[in-house]
Q: What sequence folds into this?
């Protein structure tokens, strides 16, 4: 078994999709599962939404309890733009397993995410010049990779453009194109801990001898109800939903009241019930209903985690009243909060529509399928319900 520990749910789903791409039997879990026997087990640790100390504790627990699987490979999936407690989680894994060296390749060159001359680029822009500068939890304000990692001299991290043998310590590889990935992956057997994004993991599977399989999609039904949950603040998604609301309706925005009221107050519960009722009523007129955060709404009085939990509570209320065969969710923190609230913990991925856009069947609710994607990715045409 190959074990992957991801720092959020959409990252876990992205890795699962790559496993499907290479013909592996895959399971995604949000907790350690005693029954897992698949070729690839991906655990969403959801550590990006935790404090640094909480993240370290969670990683320690997962590493210790996952040894029952006797994994042939442990891969640490991190955010492609290095958000989260990256070095702290790496150090905990190395400490727990007695590992000495580590190779980090977070970039996805096919999506224009690259490291060059010690700086992180997204397309032609430096990372801090993009929408990531406004991330609610880990805003990128400096594109120097060492600063993005919050690395200290004592961390002994080095950035290398070329493999320098023997590979020692913690190395961040400069990768701008697929050929760079292939160059580094040939040395992966010499590395104790492999850390990075989706495309590095795909290169590792290829290097291990796995072959790509033909991509197939399940037929999409037109009569079913679909809830589209947008927990992201990325401008492209926000504007698309706003245009759809203006032209066709079917969008139920988060009202102001829950973001300003105490979460244990009667007013808070009443405002959530009203929002849920609006969404349920909307299904009488629309096949696809969108719940989202309006651009103009002031959310400064509520934490990102609190906002995600608020949306999750409403999704649960809707599910109790409406049978949903399809749920689309964008945003890793939102996805994790929803699944914790319902709760759902075990999934079998069924389709990889595009990199990072994965459809999964819930084992706890087999008639419900969830399609997840990171907030910064686009919905591909194959996900018909997302074409607002």
A:
């Amino acid at each position: 078994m190959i074990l992957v520990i991801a720092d959020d749910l959409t990252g876990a789903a992205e890795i699962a999709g790559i496993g499907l791409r290479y013909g592996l039997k895959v399971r995604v879990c949000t907790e350690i599962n005693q029954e897992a026997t698949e070729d690839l087990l991906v655990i969403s640790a959801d550590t990006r939404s935790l404090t640094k100390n909480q993240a370290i504790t969670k990683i320690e627990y997962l590493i210790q309890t996952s040894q029952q699987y006797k994994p042939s490979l442990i891969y640490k999936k991190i955010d492609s733009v290095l958000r989260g407690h990256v070095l702290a989680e790496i150090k905990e894994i190395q400490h727990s397993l007695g590992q000495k060296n580590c190779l980090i390749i977070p970039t996805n060159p096919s999506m224009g995410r690259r490291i060059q001359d010690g700086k992180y680029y997204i397309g032609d822009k430096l990372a801090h010049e993009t929408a990531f500068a406004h991330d609610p939890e880990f805003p990128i304000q400096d594109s120097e990779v060492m600063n993005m990692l919050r690395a200290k001299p004592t961390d002994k991290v080095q950035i290398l453009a070329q493999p320098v043998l023997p590979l020692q310590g913690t190395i961040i590889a400069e990768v701008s194109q697929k050929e760079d990935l292939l160059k580094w992956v040939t040395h992966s057997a010499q590395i104790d801990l492999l850390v990075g994004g989706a495309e590095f993991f795909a290169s590792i599977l290829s290097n291990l001898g796995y072959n790509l399989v033909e991509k197939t999609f399940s037929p999409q039904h037109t009569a079913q109800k679909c809830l589209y949950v947008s927990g992201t603040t990325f401008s492209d998604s926000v504007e698309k939903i706003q245009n759809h609301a203006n032209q066709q309706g079917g969008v139920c925005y988060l009202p102001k009241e829950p973001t300003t009221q105490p979460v244990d107050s009667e007013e808070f519960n009443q405002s959530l019930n009203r929002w849920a009722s609006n969404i349920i009523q909307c299904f009488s007129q629309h096949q696809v209903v969108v719940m989202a955060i309006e651009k103009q709404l002031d959310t400064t009085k509520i934490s990102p985690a609190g906002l995600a939990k608020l949306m999750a509570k409403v999704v649960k209320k809707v599910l109790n009243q409406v049978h949903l065969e399809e749920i689309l969710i964008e945003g890793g923190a939102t996805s994790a909060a929803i699944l914790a609230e319902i709760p759902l913990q075990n999934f079998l991925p069924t389709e990889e529509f595009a990199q990072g856009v994965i459809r999964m069947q819930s084992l706890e609710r087999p008639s419900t399928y969830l399609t997840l994607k990171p907030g910064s990715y686009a919905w591909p045409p194959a996900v018909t319900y997302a074409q607002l």
Notes: The chain is about 30% helix and 20% strand. The chain has a mean pLDDT of 91. The two ends are 39 Å apart (CA to CA). The chain has two domains: 2-207, 226-386.
